[in-house]
Amino acid sequence: MHLPATSPRLLAANLVNAVLLDGYSLTASLANLRAASTDLSTVDGRSASQNLAAAQNLAYGVFREAGRLRFFLAQLTERPISPVELNGHLLVGLHELDAGLSPAYAAVNETVDIAARRYPRARAFVNAVMRNFQRRRTELDLAARKHPEARWNFPPWWLERLQDEYPANWENIVNALNTHPPMTLRINPRQTTLNDYRAQLDASGHPHRLAGATALILETPVPVAELPGFAEGWVSVQDFGAQMAAPLLDATSSMRVLDACAAPGGKTSHLLEIANLDLVALDSDANRLVRVQENLDRLGLAKQPDASIRLLANDAGKPSLWWDEKPFDRILLDAPCTASGVVRRHPDGKWLKRAEDMQHLAREQSRLLEALWPLLRPGGKMLYATCSLFKAENSEQIAAFLARHTDACVEPIEIAGAVSGQLGAQIIPGLNTDGFFYARLLKT
Ligand SMILES: C[S@@+](CC[C@H](N)C(=O)[O-])C[C@H]1O[C@@H](n2cnc3c(N)ncnc32)[C@H](O)[C@@H]1O
């Protein structure tokens, strides 16, 4: 973070710069801001958390539209912007004007004032960019429609890859990835039932629809603290596509199960809601593993009498460091990936990831698959999962794995609306679900 800040516009500019200039994820940048919450005290009557929520909304908006906004900025400026931190201020200001979030005079004046408070000599420049945008808006809007990155709000390499891999429906996919994601709940059957919880939602004024056996989609997202019984563990927030992982693993009570990339524990907790397992939840990130424990505690799953749960912070690719040599009946490998299927939840990811990152991640996925396969007993099953749409991380990964292992075969998976084949099932992002890939490997 650059400076302590008080106004949402200034905070949002900091967040945008932290991502685009410093390479932090928006989640990490928000966590940094929250950690510095004493700096967020307000100057205009809003609480620190209200300021932060408003800044978060602005920053998310900028990243959803960053292709378009950066195109505008490039058209409105003749040379590289200096100091570079003005980029954040201008992108937030242009987003406000473009999306009509506040009266135009307020967006222009406050963008200029806030930027000039930090960079007094930039006042005239910022003012000129904002006012030129107002003047040239129609012309720029038309030009943006002819520029792929501005039109679709995706970097060229993503667009090219999606066009190449999904020639018939890439536009639908891109449109789905540009929408606001639904807020989907997963009922905890150990605490409540679907019908009882729906009645609770109705009584507390939260319109919703049914998406799957345990999945409810809220008409309007709300902070989790407003959900009935959230603190008591009646529900979790989890995308419908992600909710398919635990049932697909096909684990039944008393099985020995490895959740190899477990944090923050969305799928770990779902597995334990379904069956009493002897479960090892592993993650290389000890800090994220704390969230697994918090989720298990909240959901009342941490101390079930008929289950055993161990959380381990270690590298799934190096079993000699943590494995007790007892084979597993089931392994869930929810591998690190580009997260290309969930960018509507993390729109900063589009602008942070590079094409080379995908090659690196594909190598890591293959390392994890190789390291974990020997830990599965014959007759056991491994569910390989990603939240990606790219074949290099999904079907191509599985094809290469099958070519290396004659004792592996893919069990068919039927998921409504998914593209299913001999190498797994690709869930296409849409109204009710993000994009996921699942392949269930059986050890013969
Ligand atoms: C897609 S997320 C997992 C999400 C989780 N399964 C859930 O449903 O909440 C991938 C996780 O893999 C972890 N990870 C990355 N490399 C790893 C490795 N070599 N060994 C173990 N965990 C790893 C990351 O820290 C991250 O928490």
Brief rundown of the structure:
By secondary structure, the chain is α/β, with parallel strands linked by helices. Helix content is 44%, strand content 16%.
Protein described:
With 444 residues, this protein is of the alpha/beta class. It has three domains: 143 residues, Orthogonal Bundle (N-utilizing Substance Protein B Homolog, Chain A); 55 residues, Alpha-Beta Plaits (2-Layer Sandwich), CATH 3.30.70.1170; 202 residues, Vaccinia Virus protein VP39 (Rossmann fold). It is built from 17 helices and 13 strands. The strands form two sheets. Strands 5, 6, 7, 8, 9, 10, 11, 12 and 13 form a nine-stranded mixed sheet that branches. Helix 9 packs across helix 10. The chain is globular and about 70 Å long. The relative contact order is 0.09. The N terminus is likely disordered. S-adenosylmethionine binds next to helix 13 and strand 6.
Give the second-level CATH assignment, the architecture of the largest domain.
3-Layer(aba) Sandwich
**Biggest sheet character:** 9 strands, mixed
Total strand segments: 13
Bound molecules: S-adenosylmethionine
Number of domains: 3
Number of helices: 17
Give Rg in angstroms: 24 Å
How far apart lie the N and C ends? 52 Å
Q: What structural category characterises the helix and strand content?
A: alpha/beta
Strand content: 15-25%
Order of H and E elements: HHHHHHHHHHEHEEEHEHEHEEHHEHEEEE
The helix content, as a percent range, equals: 40-55%
The CATH superfamily label of the largest domain reads: Vaccinia Virus protein VP39
